[in-house]
Amino acid sequence: MSKTRPIRKFSSGNPPVRATTEQEMRKENERAVHTAWRLPAGETRRRSS
Asked: In terms of pTM, does the model score above 0.85?
């Protein structure tokens, strides 16, 4: 079983995740965290570690 399946961790409303490698994911996560604190408390739920 090879890991070639696309990662579907977001709802259909969210854009497809381009980050496939862990490094890319980390970069995306970091950017999300940086923008999360600027969003309202309700939006901070997006940050899932």
From this structure: no
